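The material for today's practical consists of a large collection of protein records. Backbone structure tokens are a discrete shorthand for how the chain folds in space. An example says more than a description, so a record of this kind follows:
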Amino acid sequence: MISRLTTKPHNRGHSRPIVAGTGLTAVDRIYSTDLAAPVQALGGSCGNILVSLAMLGHPVSPMVTLGDDDHGRYLFDEFAKAGCETRYVSRSGSCGSPVIVEIVDPKNATHRFTSTCPETAHSFPKWQSIDDQQVRRATKALKTVSVFYADRVSASIVVAMKAASEAGALVFFEPASADGALFSAALRSASVLKLSDDTVGRSVQDDDVSPETVIIRTHGASGLTVSLGRESQYFPSVSAPRLVDTCGAGDMVTTGLLDFILRRCMHGGSWTIDDLFEGVLVGQRLAALNCAFAGARGLFFAAGAGYVRDILDRGIDDSCSSFVTTLGSHDGY
């Protein structure tokens, strides 16, 4: 059993903890065998988590670079509609906005991804990092955030992570790769490191990480493990009430966990390893409900953010599973 210790303090004086983050934000274009035409949503792990937390009522400041194109305008508008502070969202004419194509087979609960348009065979633009100028512009904000999320690394992102960490924020790091000195530098600022066995987790050992950093290792359908130092606790997966699409399940785990931590910080002023345990369970239950819908945030589209806020406040129980199965798997888009 992991020791019941208090981790880095939440030292903000704000009544509402603030979230900032950077990383992959893209248009999710969803093709489903049950749909006559594709639908789209704001996506990418960073985008999914930040916009979900904003829709749940948290103050959120995305720090991302988008293209000055139709996709970029769509993403910017989606952040704004969710209530995000958009002053740190940059629209660059020198790059395009990423698009991720998800092809879903709801009947068999399978999906695959591509960065090539199925209709035109055109390759969509790649992700673009924030730069030093954007980090400098956000210096004041980085000193006041309670949680900072990152799922990519660059020299500028490492600087932003360090600034947030030094100011006392919980830095949640969910890397897409584990190569080079930048990854090692980012690790030094991470409060929580989330790894997937299917990707980055294969090349990162627990001994590579500071014993003061919480490690969350996801094991696909079998669950996840939370570790601190040499101690760990396993959390089996939660069954979905209806299995349509597992895309975004990991993002929903992170969303539920961070929502729990943010609400705990609001009332208690600090977070402990016990809070992480409870938050992981909440996130797993949220992810199970989301698997009943197509797309990474299908639950939000079908049931509405107000419903998600309500069940997170009162607790996710069997009645939630019963309710979501009354909704269509593509509702709300």
